Amino acid sequence: MTKILNDFHYKAKIITEDQYFKDFVSFLLSKFDNLGCPIPDKGFKNDKEYEEWRKLYWQIVDKNKGKSLPPLFKIYIKELVVYYKIEEKYKKYFEDFFLNYIFFKKDYYPHPGFTISWKNNKRTNEHELYIRIFSHTTKENIIKNWSIVKNEKKLLNDWSKKNKNRKDFKRDLEIYKLYKKLKNVRRIRNNKGENIYRNKRLDEEISSIIMDKYEDLSWENIRKIITRMKKLDTEFVTNK
Fold first, then answer.
1. pTM of the shown model
2. What is the mean pLDDT of the chain?
């Protein structure tokens, strides 16, 4: 699988750093432990191991019919997507990412064994969809990922144009998480009728906390980082 570093990847990384997501993963893993079908600490090494585990899982499901039903984990995954308000056309990507993260301990989306592109037919003036296969592509690759072809067409340009490594992403995420924490503290103060500023702007307060670690960051740069991360945090999310 190819590691794709686009906005989807970094949006997913924001989610995996969220405490609700961490608690959810711990909850689900403990469920599997209690059922007698634990997930390896380092995740499954390959699809074969995962499929063997799935057989064991469904054997337990069959034995528990009419009793205490084990967690139907794909339902839980779908609930995660709903919780994070993922837009309909991106849901399949995030569901696959979460499954890959939980079961294989991979923090990136597993790129399928083929690529998709749109081309304009000059004769008909219609957009046509092309699937490019490789020497390692199998029939199962295409069948298994057919929903991507159907539902994720608008993402195709993102794969080719926004694949870039953000070397400062870890730093930016740290600052953004601090920003959200301090903003929440100020909201609570405001609800109590307290002075939320205490003679400091929010970017100034953030700077005073991180100055020893990131002394080269100005208030202006901090504001730019927060703006950029806020935009990324709201991508792929529906407002409905």
1. 0.55
2. 81
